[in-house]
TrEMBL record:
Keywords in alphabetical order: Oxidoreductase
Database matches in PROSITE patterns: FMN_HYDROXY_ACID_DH_2
Names of the cofactor(s): FMN
Family membership: Belongs to the FMN-dependent alpha-hydroxy acid dehydrogenase family.
Name the UniProt record assigns to this protein: Alpha-hydroxy acid oxidase
Record SUPFAM superfamilies: FMN-linked oxidoreductases (SSF51395)
Source organism of this protein record: Paenalcaligenes hermetiae
Entry-linked InterPro entries: Aldolase_TIM, Alpha-hydoxy_acid_DH_FMN, FMN-dep_DH, FMN_HAD
Domain FMN hydroxy acid dehydrogenase: 10-370
Length: 370
C-alpha cells in the first residue's frame, strides 16, 4: 500500500477549481479515509445526481447594468455575513489533515464565513474557540444522554457558538457500501472528542436471523418531532434543522420554532433514492415563506451552482466535500483557497447575470430546467 503524501506547503498554480483539488487530496489520504470522505450511500446515484442537478439550469446573461455598488452580503439571524458560502459540518476532519477542524476553523475565520463544527468533531470545541476567532455554529445529533447533552450545550454557549444545526436526516447511517468495501474504521487518534463522557450508543446487531436494526434499541437514540420541539424550546441558541427535503417537514419545522432550515440529503450519504436538494428547494421555500431562512447543501462545486441555489430561494449555501479536498491537500490554506475560488466564481456570475446583490438573484435569472 502506498503511503499518503504530506500536505502541500504551497498551492500549485494549476489548482484553479474545486475539482482540481480532488487528485491532490486523494494522494494525501488513506484509501479507507478517502472512501469515508467521498463516499455516498449504496450505489451513489444520489451523490452524482446532487451535482448533475445543477447542470439542468441555465443562467441568463444580462448586460449593461450598473454594478458599481455590487456586493454579496447576506443577513442571517440578525448578523451580516460577507458572502453566502458557509462550511457544512463534516465529522472527523483529522482523517483528512493532522490539524483537522482547527485548520478549517482558521480558514473560516480568515475568510470571514461561518464554520458549522460537527458534533463528531475530532478536535475539542474549546480548542477551536480559543484558537480560531471566526463565527462557529455547532452541528448536533440529538442524544439520549440528556445530562451530557446539557453539559455540552452549556459549554458551547459559553464558548460563543452562535447557532445549533440539528441534523434530522440520519437516525441511522445510510448503507455505505463504499466504506464497507474499504473496511473503513476510525484510526487510532481520531475520535469524537466532544462526546467523551456521553453514554455509549447501542450497537447494531448483524447476526443472520435477527432483526439488524428494529428492536435492537438502536433507534431509541433517534429523536421524534416532540423531542426536537422540546430541544428547540430549551435551547438558548437559535436552532436550524438540517436534512429537510419534504415541504410537510419544512412546515412542521417552522411550527416547532426552528430558526432556519438546511435543505439537504446529507451529501447523498443516507438514502440513495432521495430527491436532490435542488429539486426539493423550491417547495420548501414556498412552504415556509419568508418567515425563516432556508439554506441548502449538496453537490455545490461552482460559483454558478451557488447562484442557481440562491435563484431558487436559498438564503445561503453550505459546502462539504469541496473544502475537505482543500483541507486534505493543503490544510488551512487549501480550505481558504476553495472558499476564495467559489466566492470569486459567484461574483463573476453575478456580474455577468447583471445582479448587483443577492436580492437581485431571482428565479427569472434562470433558464428553465430540462
Ligand atoms: C465525510 C463527511 C462527513 C459528514 N459529517 C457530517 C456530520 O457530522 N454531521 C452532519 O450533519 N452532516 C455531515 N455530513 C454532511 C455534510 O454536512 C453536508 O450535508 C454534505 O457534505 C453536503 O454535500 P457536499 O459534500 O456535496 O457539499 C458529512 C459529509 C461528509 C462528506
Ligand atoms: C459520525 C457520522 C454519523 C457523521 C456523518 O454524519 C457522516 O459521516 O455523514
Amino acid at each position: 500500500m502506498t503511503t499518503p503524501l504530506a500536505p502541500l506547503s504551497q498551492i500549485p498554480a494549476e489548482i484553479v477549481t474545486v475539482a482540481d483539488y480532488i487528485s491532490y487530496a486523494q494522494a494525501r489520504m488513506t484509501p479507507q479515509a478517502w472512501a469515508y470522505l467521498t463516499g455516498g450511500a449504496a450505489d451513489e446515484r444520489l451523490l452524482h445526481r446532487n451535482e448533475s442537478a445543477y447542470q439542468r439550469y441555465q443562467i441568463w446573461p444580462r448586460v449593461l447594468r450598473d454594478l458599481t455598488a455590487a456586493h454579496t452580503r447576506v443577513s442571517l439571524l440578525g448578523k451580516e455575513y460577507a458572502y453566502p458560502i458557509f462550511l457544512a459540518p463534516v465529522a472527523y476532519q483529522r482523517l483528512a489533515h493532522p490539524e483537522g477542524e482547527l485548520a478549517t476553523a482558521l480558514a473560516a475565520a480568515a475568510m470571514q464565513t461561518p464554520f458549522v463544527v460537527s458534533m463528531q468533531s475530532s478536535t475539542d470545541l474549546a480548542v477551536l474557540a480559543a484558537q480560531a476567532p471566526g463565527p462557529q455554529w455547532l452541528q448536533w445529533y440529538w442524544q439520549p444522554d440528556q445530562q451530557a447533552s446539557a453539559r455540552l450545550l452549556t459549554q458551547a454557549v459559553q464558548l460563543g457558538v452562535e447557532a445549533i444545526v440539528l441534523t434530522v436526516d440520519a437516525p441511522v447511517n445510510g448503507v455505505r457500501n463504499r466504506e464497507q468495501r474499504a473496511q473503513f474504521c476510525l484510526p487510532a487518534g481520531v475520535e469524537a472528542v466532544n462526546l467523551r463522557g456521553f453514554a455509549p450508543q447501542p450497537a447494531l446487531v448483524s447476526q443472520a436471523g435477527q432483526s439488524p436494526l428494529f428492536g435492537t434499541g438502536f433507534l431509541q437514540t433517534a429523536p421524534t418531532w416532540a423531542q426536537v420541539a422540546e430541544f428547540i424550546q430549551d435551547c438558548p441558541l437559535p436552532v436550524f434543522l438540517k436534512g429537510i427535503l419534504h415541504p410537510g417537514d419544512a412546515r412542521q419545522a417552522l411550527e416547532i420554532g426552528a430558526a432556519g432550515i438546511v435543505v439537504s440529503n446529507h451529501g447523498g450519504r443516507v438514502l440513495d433514492t432521495a430527491p436532490t436538494p435542488l429539486q426539493a428547494l423550491p417547495a420548501v421555500v414556498q412552504a415556509v415563506g419568508a418567515s425563516i431562512p432556508v439554506l441548502v447543501d449538496g453537490g455545490i462545486r461552482r460559483g454558478t451552482d451557488v447562484f442557481i441555489a440562491l435563484a431558487l430561494g436559498a438564503k445561503a449555501v453550505l459546502i462539504g466535500r469541496p473544502y475537505m479536498y482543500g483541507l486534505a491537500a493543503a490544510g488551512a490554506a487549501g480550505v481558504a483557497h476553495v472558499l476564495h475560488i467559489l466566492r470569486t466564481e459567484l461574483e463573476v456570475t453575478m456580474a455577468l447575470a447583471g445582479c448587483h446583490n443577492l436580492d437581485a438573484i431571482q428565479r427569472d435569472c434562470l433558464g428553465d430546467a430540462y
